[in-house]
């Protein structure tokens, strides 16, 4: 090992020809990195306040972002971003939020970027239609059932993608895409089919109906339902969840082997609370003797 170690630095330049030399150089780089990382903040840290507006370096980072980062972001969003991919979309949303720290939203290139985001989401939502097959078709054809479920999952992922831009794009646009075009316009036939398949029992059929409603509610941004006021576009979906709740309430006095229906009631009550209808959720929970919901 000693012989090998003796030859490690044999062909290295003199300033890197020993462990000590390499260590010194790394420490120098570390110090420089620290200076760059804290650039523009040293005055504030020393009690001297932030960098003044007339300091020529105050626009250094914003200009670098405008000239280097923003063009790359525009290219990547236009050419590479799949608006149906949740990981990609969350990365794009985070990137857009960072860009807005340095570049005002009204600047032409940022207007272009935000417009590109909006256009991509609108195009993806327009292409997310689910086949409106009745429950009888899905029950008779396993292939049709698999196709419909796959399309539902795709629409659900897109729903998560749309809500990722809350606070970046206009809420009215996002609510319209998510609740108007995707949920009410594309997903409701599938959700209603799941409810129809639930029948009167509290078993697998009702469990699937609750799970689909639960998944949609989880994809919606909670701020849209803050204060108990649901957007008008949510009315169809909220009524769908309420109809499931009424069905479970009507069965509350029937035998519930293993507490299956009570478990569904607890989950559905949580969905109602998330959608701003806590009163109905509490009533459903009370019907099954559920406390602390």
From TrEMBL:
One of its GO terms (cellular component) is nucleus. InterPro entries: GCFC2-like (IPR012890). GO terms for biological process: mRNA splicing, via spliceosome. GO terms for molecular function: DNA binding. The keyword Zinc-finger does not apply. Its main location: nucleus. Keywords: Nucleus. It comes from the Eukaryota. The keyword Nucleus applies. It is found in: Nucleus. This is GCF C-terminal domain-containing protein. It comes from Chlamydomonas incerta.
């Amino acid at each position: 090992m000693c012989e090998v170690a003796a030859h490690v630095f044999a062909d290295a330049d003199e300033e890197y020809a020993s462990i000590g030399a390499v260590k010194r150089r790394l420490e120098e780089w570390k110090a420089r990195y620290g200076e760059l990382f804290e650039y523009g903040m040293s005055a504030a840290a020393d009690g001297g306040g932030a960098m003044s507006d007339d300091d020529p370096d105050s626009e250094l980072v914003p200009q670098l972002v405008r000239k280097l980062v923003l063009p790359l972001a525009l290219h990547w969003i236009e050419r590479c971003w799949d608006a149906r991919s949740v990981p990609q979309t969350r990365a794009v949303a985070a990137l857009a939020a960072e860009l807005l720290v340095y570049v005002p939203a009204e600047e032409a290139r940022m207007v272009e970027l935000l417009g590109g985001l909006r256009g991509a989401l609108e195009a993806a939502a327009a292409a997310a239609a689910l086949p409106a097959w009745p429950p009888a078709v899905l029950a008779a054809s396993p292939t049709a059932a698999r196709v419909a479920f796959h399309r539902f999952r795709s629409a659900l992922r897109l729903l998560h993608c749309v809500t990722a831009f809350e606070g970046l794009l206009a809420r009215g646009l996002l609510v319209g895409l998510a609740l108007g075009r995707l949920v009410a316009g594309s997903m409701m036939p599938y959700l209603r089919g799941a409810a129809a398949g639930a029948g009167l029992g509290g078993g697998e059929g009702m469990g699937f109906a609750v799970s689909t409603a639960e998944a949609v509610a989880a994809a919606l941004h909670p701020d849209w339902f803050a204060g108990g006021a649901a957007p008008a576009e949510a009315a169809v979906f909220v009524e769908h969840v309420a109809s499931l709740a009424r069905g479970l309430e009507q069965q509350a006095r029937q035998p519930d082997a293993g507490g299956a229906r009570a478990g569904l009631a607890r989950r559905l009550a949580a969905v109602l609370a998330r959608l701003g209808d806590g009163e109905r959720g509490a009533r459903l929970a009370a019907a099954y003797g559920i406390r602390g919901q």
